[in-house]
């Protein structure tokens, strides 16, 4: 059931979570499928509802750095980053704290844990009302496109989720940046809503996991399997022209003519607007009658890094389909 977030529905959602149930809720990045991060059975229910392989660890959502310190071994770099980016679209991977209450299943047996303080008021209200960290992957079936509206959640998960808090369209529209702080030089495991440039402005040079040997990167962030963000039909990148059986995902003021259907990520070439539209437009183009989705080139800077990362995954058809 999709409900408007009010004091009453948030209290109801918090009660469901404390009892081990699942609730879908809005964050500024994408909608999350939340469960009590300290409850192994609730976390297992998340994997089950998503059809997600259990080796893929989850992010624990917290209110602030003070709370995160109880779950992970905090350090100075984390502190600098949290001051600049929290609450916001940056997830930090740190060693689990001794006696961390985070369920082992939530960190998939790793000795690290991922934490993030979302900036969405509904997400914050829910975390506060539950009084526990909320484990939440994106609220879609595994391998599908992340939901940026409450209706997407209902379409993807159906009655696997009893309650969806409707916060309207997500402001950022792309998942958080996942940054591993357990190595000497921090590694961007997943590009996302916080740009590499902005992160480097605070802590200096970071590495990109794409630059690591494939096996290493896969091990470090198991969610980053190639076909993670897969629409149902083939995706063709860097399209400068388009054919009549294609749907066009355009960018900028001059899309080529002739597509069966065109969605423009940002007619004014604004990467923030493009990020916010990405998943909803991929969904809109992923429909019967359209043979293939053609995507215009997007600049590889700022949020373009994360947008192109998602598009390359959507285009890769390795049939694994076992991501988040
Ligand atoms: O924006 C977001 O991050 C959204 C909203 C709901 O917060 N959540 C999200 O969660 O995208 P999910 O589960 O779809 O993606 C989490 C990513 C995965 O790539 C996973 O492998 C990585 O974070 N991750 C989680 N814990 C990790 C850990 N301990 N070490 C390395 N990677 C980790
Ligand atoms: Mg996901």
Task: Kindly describe this structure.
The chain has 324 residues and is α/β, with parallel strands linked by helices. It folds into two domains: 207 residues, DHBP synthase, CATH 3.90.870.10; 80 residues, Rossmann fold, CATH 3.40.50.11030. Strand 9 and strand 10 form a beta hairpin. The longest helix has 15 residues. The protein starts with a strand and ends in a 9-residue tail after the last helix. Threonylcarbamoyladenylate binds next to strand 5, strand 6 and strand 10.
The gist of it:
The protein is of the alpha/beta class and 324 residues long. The protein contains 10 helices and 15 strands.
Reconstruct the topology from this structure.
Layout: E1 2-3, H1 7-18, E2 23-25, E3 32-36, H2 40-50, E4 59-61, H3 65-68, H4 76-85, E5 90-95, E6 112-116, H5 121-130, E7 134-135, H6 150-157, E8 163-165, E9 177-180, E10 187-190, H7 196-203, E11 207-208, H8 214-220, E12 235-236, E13 246-250, E14 261-264, H9 271-285, E15 292-295, H10 304-315
Parallel strand pairs: 1-8, 2-8, 4-6, 5-9, 10-11, 12-15, 13-14, 13-15
Antiparallel strand pairs: 2-3, 3-7, 4-7, 5-6, 9-10
Helix pairs in contact: 1-5
The structure holds threonylcarbamoyladenylate and magnesium ion.
Magnesium ion binds next to loops.
């Amino acid at each position: 059931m999709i409900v408007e977030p009010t004091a009453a529905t948030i209290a109801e959602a918090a009660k469901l979570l404390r009892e081990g149930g699942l609730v879908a809720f809005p964050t500024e990045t994408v909608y999350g499928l939340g469960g009590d991060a300290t409850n192994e059975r609730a976390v297992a229910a998340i994997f089950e509802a998503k059809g997600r392989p259990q080796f893929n660890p989850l992010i624990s959502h917290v209110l602030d750095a003070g709370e995160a310190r109880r779950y992970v071994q905090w350090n100075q770099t984390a502190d600098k980053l949290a001051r600049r980016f929290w609450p916001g679209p940056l997830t930090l991977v740190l060693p689990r704290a001794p006696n961390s209450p985070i369920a082992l299943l939530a960190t998939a047996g790793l000795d690290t844990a991922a934490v993030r303080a979302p900036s969405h008021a509904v997400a914050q209200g829910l975390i506060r009302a539950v009084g526990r960290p909320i484990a939440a992957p994106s609220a879609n079936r595994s391998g599908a496109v992340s939901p940026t509206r409450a209706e997407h959640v209902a379409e993807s998960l159906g009655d696997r989720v009893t309650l969806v808090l409707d916060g309207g369209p997500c402001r950022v529209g792309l998942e958080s940046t996942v940054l591993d702080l357990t190595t000497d030089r921090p590694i961007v495991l997943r590009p996302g809503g916080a740009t590499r440039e902005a992160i480097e402005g605070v802590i200096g040079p970071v590495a990109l996991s794409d630059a690591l040997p494939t096996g290493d990167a896969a091990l470090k962030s198991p969610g980053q399997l190639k076909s993670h963000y897969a629409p149902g039909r083939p995706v063709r990148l860097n399209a400068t022209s388009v054919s009549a059986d294609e749907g066009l995902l355009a960018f900028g003021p001059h899309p080529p003519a002739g597509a069966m259907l065109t969605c423009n990520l940002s007619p004014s070439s604004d990467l923030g607007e493009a990020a916010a539209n990405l998943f909803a437009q991929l969904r809109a183009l992923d429909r019967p009658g359209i043979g293939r989705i053609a995507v215009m080139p997007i600049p590889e800077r700022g949020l373009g890094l994360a947008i192109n990362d998602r598009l390359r995954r959507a285009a890769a058809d390795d049939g694994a389909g076992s991501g988040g």
